């Protein structure tokens, strides 16, 4: 080990390894095989680099192992209990399986998602789980070309197996719950309004279908303007409802806890009319049970979804099925 304060360079390592600086650089940046250098030289350079306290490139340090044991996950948001729960459970389950988890947040930006996928593959991730990805097939196609397994979570794709919530069934059950409470509490039969999300998104589309199915079960028609799916943000939900002034009993199906924030803001400003509103949310937060007017929430089974996804890790069969995991309906 060098005792002076001078930082170790590749030239120092080259001298100690009896190799050229360019060969040392190739070993440290992971391109030594392309240079047709020997594994014995690569091992020697890496050993000396560690002994000398050199900050070895992460890719290069993987050269001495048959497997990286890295598993990556892309998530769209951290400021959401659902995705935060997924990320936390993913890390714990990965470590229980002797895998090293790497999680990155991509803000629902398809370009950030793809860049994150490329980076994770460059670090020799053995599997990449795309959670709520806007373009999962682009990621899966890249992973396949790179020899890396990919799995979709929360939103499905067609080029890799997908594990998602049973959005349709849970939305149908939640709609029935809200309508039952509107009938028992307010003496009102509906129809409800659907607030939040985007029609073109898979999960929102499936939830709208479940929402419509529950109304059809009761023979209730839904006016087109009752489907208020124009974005996820709290501000969007609040602005949509600010343009709607309930003149009598009203029921709302809220599509996420993000939209719920805007709904609660709107509801708080109704004054005495708040007592004539009942709503439920397809998403879960333990504080939800304390919100006036909230009759229930849907909790997606994160543990079961991740267990199902991890059961697919290492499976190379070309089965592109979509596995739907039942949700839990929590009445308040």
UniProtKB/TrEMBL annotation:
InterPro entries: HTH_LacI, Lambda_DNA-bd_dom_sf, Peripla_BP/Lac1_sug-bd_dom, Peripla_BP_I
A molecular-function term among this protein's GO annotations: DNA-binding transcription factor activity
SMART domains: HTH_LACI (SM00354)
TM region(s), chain numbering: none
Protein's UniProt keywords contain tRNA processing: no
Source taxon at top rank: Bacteria
Keywords assigned: DNA-binding, Repressor, Transcription, Transcription regulation
One Pfam family recorded for the sequence: Peripla_BP_1
Domain HTH lacI-type positions: 8-65
Keyword ATP-binding among UniProt keywords: no
Protein name (database record): Transcriptional regulator, LacI family
